[in-house]
Structure formats: structure tokens, C-alpha cells
């Protein structure tokens, strides 16, 4: 029932009174499906949501050779577009319908796998549904970006991990790979989920060989995804981040192996007219790798502190403030943003006022989860929630680190979408973990704990034999 309610809420939230979404062209990702969006030339692309994409044969135009698991969702949307009566070859509103229904499925599954009384389970699932419905994330569901596929798949990954940790069977372990691969393959920087998921699968009593096999498979595909992607854009990481307002630009360029004569280009983007005079010299110089940039941060702590600060501001921002939510003709100003549901956005005012509270939330969540895992009086299902509380901040921190390294301060809020979602998920998960710690203060004797563990193992073996 909870899943059905949230599936309906998402449809109403996205479409009632006119559809809303998120402007932008997702790095032109749908072009890989033979689609194009010839937008109004007077607009830059960030003002209005433009859902209709038409069939187009790309011959000489720029269509980046990029693969993403989001293409599977967009291909499904392309098939559904005529069935739902939408115009064009792909209408992003079809994606909104599908993703909204999938959010309901996630909420329904959470009710089934989260421990506690029915009211507690329904409350936790509704908190997750409210997160997807919040204005900070709902717009992605009607957009050409890769984020909606990753965000919805991450919800299924949470469900799968809770099932594996509660009772680790081979089918459950293998089934975890499906949402994991959808998340990892959505964007190159989501490769940070590889070690996190590997750790989560190995943090399972028994079945370690199967878990190791699945973890290795995911790791191999994740590395392949990164290697086959386009090269690292050092311009954003160096010129628009490290050299931004940098009084020692020439020396820092030399430390990075770049031409110090490029120091006057510090802070310039490729769209700046002044960059033209530096473009040729930039292309003829050696370009640092991500490892070289990471080494620079390790030896220049002041730059590291600055960049981490920009990253925390990106997580605290939660929602890109330059991407519109409404289509053209909706009677809204250019770049106008909707505020239909803003519960998490309102809570985030605390983090906007103090971005350093973001890592505090990570630490509190992980600490509460560790206490839950260590408490002997809790059931396997309750301890699974504790493991989730430990893994979520780890995933958020890993994703935060790679976004800071690769994108720096360029469109930080949008690139931190997954980090922000994981951080927001910490709120309901931490609440459950803290509740479990406070309501189960009486420890169980060690001999009784061993007896219960043996009984649980024998029960699992009987089920497998059956």
C-alpha cells in the first residue's frame, strides 16, 4: 500500500498543474540513440525544460562517444513515448512516468525489508519517498541527464543490500549486481561505488566466495567503464579550480607540469573570449593526470582546503540554482524553479548556513550504525540497518572526493547530486540507527549471543537444504 501511495504521489507531484523537470541537455546523452533536441536558438538551454527529442541522423555534428546505463532508461522512454501519446521520438515525460512508478516500487520494497513495527517501516519508506519527491531531486526524473537512472537504481541497491545483510543467500548476492551496475555505469565518477559495494558484499557472514566473485565482476566492469570514457578534463580541475583567484598561479602550474606562461589564463573557462589567445599554448603543453592532480593536493594543503570547501558548499547547495523547472509556455520566467515539495530542501538550510555540518552528519550516521552492528541484542535485520548506516557515509565521502578531484568548483552542485542524495538518505537511516541503539540498551550475555548465532546458522542451512 505504501508503494502504491508513493507511486501515485510522484505522478501527481510531477504532472499535476503542468509537468516540471530539470532543464539542460545531459551532455547531449540522447544523441547516442539517434535523437536530437533543436532548441530555441535564443535560449542557452538552462532556462526551460524541453522534453521533446526528435529522430536525427548524426553525420558530422558533435555527438560524444559516451556510454551510460542511462541510455537503457532513455531507450525504454523512446519505446513508451508513442504508447503514452507524447510527441516526438522521445518525450522526457515518459521517463517521468516510469521513474515515478519505480520510486513507488522502492518504497514498497523498503516497507518489506526494514525492521520494526509496521508504522516505523512505513515511516522510513515514506521518508525515502519524500526524498525523491523533494524539489532538489524530483526534477531529474524528467530530464536527459544520467542522474535519474543512478538515483533510482541507488534506491534498489539499498533494498538489495538490506536483503543480503539480513540473510546472505547466493541469489540475493548475485541480484545485488543489477542495481549496482546500473549505478556504476551511469556516470564515470560513479566508479567510486565499486570499492564501496565490494566492501558491502564482503561484510556478509558466509557466502564470501560468491560475494568476492560478484565484487570482482563489478570492479572489472567499473574499471572498464572509466578506461573507455573520454579523457580527464584537466581544464576544469586546474584552470577553473586550482588557479581560481590564485596568487601563485605560475608556480602551481609548474608543480602540475604545465607551462607557467599560462598563468594569465587562471580562472578562465573555455567559453571566455580571453581564452582564445591561450588555447594553442594550452593544447601544446603536457596535461596532468588525475593522479598528478591528487598528488598536487597532497603537497599543497591550502589548495586542498579551498577545494574541499567548495565541494562542501556544493553538497550544501543541494539543488542547481541555474536550471529551470518549467517548459516554455508555462507562464513562468526563464530559469524559474518549482517548489511543490521542499521538506529536505528546507532542512538543508541548516547545511547551507554551515557546510561543515555535512561531514558531521556523515560521522554521526556511521557512528550510530557501528553501534547497532556491535550490539549483540539486535536481530540480523536490525543489524542490516546498522551496516547501511555505515556504508552510506562511506559512499558519500568517496563520491565527494572524486567529484572534487575531477570537477572542482565547476557546476559543483549538479555534479554532487549523488553525494547529496546519499547525504540526505543519512537522515532517516541515522534516525533508525539511533532509535535502535537507545531502545536496546540492555546487552545480551555472550553465551546467549553464541547460542542465537548457532540457531540462526542451523536455520539457514535447513532452508538451503529445503
From TrEMBL:
<feature type="transmembrane region" description="Helical">
    <location>
        <begin position="177"/>
        <end position="202"/>
    </location>
</feature>
<keyword id="KW-0812">Transmembrane</keyword>
<feature type="transmembrane region" description="Helical">
    <location>
        <begin position="353"/>
        <end position="373"/>
    </location>
</feature>
<feature type="transmembrane region" description="Helical">
    <location>
        <begin position="209"/>
        <end position="227"/>
    </location>
</feature>
<feature type="transmembrane region" description="Helical">
    <location>
        <begin position="120"/>
        <end position="142"/>
    </location>
</feature>
<feature type="transmembrane region" description="Helical">
    <location>
        <begin position="94"/>
        <end position="114"/>
    </location>
</feature>
<feature type="transmembrane region" description="Helical">
    <location>
        <begin position="149"/>
        <end position="165"/>
    </location>
</feature>
<feature type="transmembrane region" description="Helical">
    <location>
        <begin position="418"/>
        <end position="441"/>
    </location>
</feature>
<keyword id="KW-0472">Membrane</keyword>
<protein>
    <recommendedName>
        <fullName>Glycosyltransferase RgtA/B/C/D-like domain-containing protein</fullName>
    </recommendedName>
</protein>
<feature type="transmembrane region" description="Helical">
    <location>
        <begin position="385"/>
        <end position="406"/>
    </location>
</feature>
<keyword id="KW-1133">Transmembrane helix</keyword>
Amino acid at each position: 500500500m505504501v508503494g502504491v501511495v508513493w507511486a501515485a504521489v510522484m505522478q501527481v507531484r510531477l504532472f499535476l498543474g503542468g509537468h516540471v523537470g530539470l532543464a539542460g541537455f545531459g551532455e547531449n546523452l540522447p544523441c547516442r540513440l539517434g535523437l536530437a533536441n533543436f532548441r530555441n536558438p535564443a535560449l542557452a538551454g538552462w532556462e526551460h525544460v524541453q522534453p521533446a527529442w526528435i529522430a536525427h541522423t548524426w553525420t558530422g555534428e558533435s555527438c560524444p562517444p559516451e556510454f551510460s546505463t542511462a541510455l537503457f532508461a532513455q531507450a525504454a522512454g523512446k519505446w513508451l513515448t508513442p504508447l503514452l501519446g507524447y510527441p516526438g521520438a522521445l518525450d522526457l515525460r515518459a521517463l517521468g512516468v516510469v521513474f515515478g512508478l519505480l520510486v513507488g516500487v522502492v518504497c514498497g520494497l523498503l516497507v518489506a525489508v526494514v525492521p520494526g513495527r509496521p508504522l516505523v517501516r512505513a515511516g522510513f519508506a515514506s521518508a525515502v519517498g519524500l526524498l525523491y519527491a523533494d524539489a532538489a531531486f524530483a526534477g531529474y526524473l524528467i530530464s536527459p541527464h544520467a542522474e535519474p537512472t543512478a538515483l533510482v537504481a541507488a534506491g534498489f541497491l539499498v533494498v538489495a543490500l538490506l536483503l543480503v545483510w539480513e540473510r546472505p543467500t547466493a541469489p540475493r548476492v548475485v541480484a545485488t549486481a543489477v542495481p549496482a551496475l546500473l549505478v556504476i555505469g551511469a556516470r564515470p565518477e560513479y566508479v567510486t561505488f565499486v570499492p564501496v559495494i565490494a566492501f558491502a558484499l564482503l561484510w556478509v557472514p558466509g557466502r564470501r566466495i560468491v560475494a568476492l566473485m560478484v565484487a570482482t565482476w563489478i570492479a572489472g566492469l567499473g574499471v572498464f567503464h572509466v578506461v573507455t570514457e573520454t579523457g580527464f578534463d584537466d581544464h576544469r580541475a586546474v584552470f577553473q579550480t586550482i588557479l581560481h583567484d590564485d596568487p601563485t598561479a605560475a608556480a602551481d602550474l609548474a608543480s602540475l607540469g604545465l607551462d607557467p606562461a599560462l598563468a594569465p589564463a587562471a580562472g578562465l573557462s573555455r567559453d571566455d573570449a580571453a581564452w582564445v589567445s591561450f588555447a594553442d599554448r594550452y593544447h601544446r603543453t603536457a596535461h596532468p593526470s588525475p593522479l598528478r592532480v591528487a598528488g598536487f593536493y597532497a603537497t599543497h594543503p591550502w589548495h586542498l582546503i579551498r577545494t574541499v570547501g567548495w565541494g562542501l558548499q556544493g553538497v550544501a547547495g543541494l539543488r542547481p540554482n541555474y536550471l529551470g523547472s518549467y517548459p516554455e509556455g508555462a507562464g513562468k520566467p526563464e530559469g524559474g524553479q518549482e517548489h511543490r515539495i521542499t521538506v529536505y530542501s528546507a532542512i538543508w538550510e541548516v547545511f547551507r548556513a554551515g557546510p561543515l555540518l555535512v561531514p558531521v552528519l556523515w560521522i554521526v550516521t556511521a557512528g550510530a550504525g557501528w553501534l547497532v552492528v556491535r550490539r549483540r541484542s539486535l536481530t540480523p535485520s536490525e543489524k542490516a540497518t546498522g551496516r547501511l548506516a555505515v556504508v552510506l557515509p562511506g559512499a558519500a565521502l568517496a563520491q565527494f572526493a572524486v567529484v572534487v578531484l575531477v570537477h572542482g568548483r565547476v557546476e559543483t552542485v549538479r555534479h554532487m547530486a549523488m553525494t547529496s542524495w546519499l547525504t540526505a538518505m543519512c537522515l532517516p537511516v541515522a534516525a533508525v540507527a539511533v532509535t535502535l541503539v537507545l531502545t536496546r540498551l540492555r546487552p545480551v550475555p555472550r553465551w546467549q549471543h553464541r547460542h542465537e548465532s548457532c540457531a540462526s546458522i542451523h536455520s539457514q542451512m535447513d532452508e538451503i537444504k529445503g
